[in-house]
Amino acid sequence: MTAETSLIPDEAKAMIGSEAGRASGRVVKQEFQRWAAAVKDRNPLYFDADFARAHGYRDVVMPPMYLSHVTHGVADLDTLRPDGIPGGGGGDLPLPHTPRRMAGGENITWHHPVYDGDELTSVRVIEKIEEKHGRSGDFVLVTSRTSYVNQDGVTVAEAVGSMIARP
Amino acid sequence: MADQTYFEDVSVGDSIPTLAVTVDPTQMFFFSAATYNGHRIHYDKTWATEVEGYPDILVHGPLQAALLARAVTDWVGADGRLVSYAIQNRASAFPGEELRFVGTVTAKHDADDGGHGLVDLEIHGEKGEAEVLMPGTATVSLPKRG
Amino acid sequence: MKNERRLLKNSTDQRMRVSTEESLIPPQASKLIGTEQARATGIVEKKQFQRWAAAVKDRNPLYFDAGFARAHGYRDVVAPPLYVQYVTLGVTDQATLRPDGTPGGQSGDIPLPHAPRRMAGGETWQFHAPLYDGDVITATRRVDDITEKHGRSGRFVLVTWLAEYRNQDDVIVAEARSSMIARP
Lengths: 167, 146, 184
Known about the structure:
The complex is a heterotrimer. In chain A, about 15% of the residues lie in helices and about 35% in strands. By secondary structure, chain A is of the alpha+beta class. In chain A, strands 1-3-4-5-2 form a five-stranded antiparallel beta sheet, with no helix packed on it. In chain A, strand 4 (about 135-150) and strand 5 (about 155-165) form a beta hairpin. The longest helix of chain A has 10 residues, at about 30-40. The two termini of chain A are about 15 Å apart. Chain B contains three helices and five strands. Chain B has a five-stranded antiparallel beta sheet with strand order 1-3-4-5-2. Chain B starts with 18 loop residues before the first strand and ends with a strand. The chains are: A alpha+beta, B alpha+beta, C alpha+beta. The interface of B and C includes residues 66, 85 and 88 of B. Strand 2 (about 80-90) of chain B pairs antiparallel with strand 2 (about 115-125) of chain C, so a sheet runs across the interface.
């Protein structure tokens, strides 16, 4: 693929290895319980403190997959992209040739339980930006690594995730 | 938000700045999420039109009420406050329509606290020619220049 | 006392009417007047009330900027006044929803079998004290009145509720009177 036909502009390539986003958020029990209810996951570890304590936790525990939502903030509706996704902010890569977005995959390792009241800080670094050739055409695959650290400086989880950007 | 409005500068008959809003489905989705409201008439167009017979998804009554309150709180400024607020749900609104939230001062009273005064307002939300969606009243506390 | 007089008045009216018109309000509804229908607790959470304000596009710095709020006499950012009604909504199990997505089986339902068509009336709020991140709010709702009325389009029942919101210090932060119209 020649430079003129590349879907990845130089400004995006320049961001590889850099911190793309940093955010903090408080873990709120009602919020992770509402998430579990939306997923129809009634696991008592998330809802029943006595049950959780009987199984070695100190309180109800955050569902592992709620992790990335802790540090989502407050979206100003006037800064949304036309497709409704939050725009701007540190994580928005300049990929003007490939505006359509979809999640690729995720690989998450959870090290420690997360509880109501914990403060998490997430730091995201862009690891790779690759042009790929799929069955439905060419697309860009962005791979990022995110670490989640709590108020005691403990890394509670790490995630490697990818985003698909299509023309 | 406007600059601070002071009690002495307000007269009966004054209008507060009109808040004009055209609601879109994305805002309606965020409002349903923020109010933890799963009522399909606000986000499911097939349900709203085919099952309940509306022309489109409906703008939430509480969103209209919140926008009307915002018109008032934007006017009272950071040193004023909303004391009481009353509205009636009269007619429906749909996304894409320009909604206007307005208010007029109807009375002024001194409050017990010497630093503030109370102001009564007639307020309402309307659309189109002047179709009233939500009539109401409000009482606010405004600081005195002192 | 007030409820007793009202019930006596209804039964007097019924005796005097020549049974052409049955009351729209059955006894099991009238006896709910004055009773507490719902009580719930919740915690005020800053990001949640900020998301509500953002959904209304209300960027009032009193809700977002702690320095600004303190400069205007508050001890932290405050919740938008109308947000108080959402603090105690809790967690909903989707299996309990009605087909239209509204919460099912609420204790606040008034049995009015002869007046099944429902319409929201209005609401009146009094705001007494600010709400801060971390405040624990207890909301109680009681039936204030149930009366039959005659309007231009016929008979209807007007149900009024009174909601009271108190914080962890038992300070009443807000109250609301709301009404519902039920038609045959």
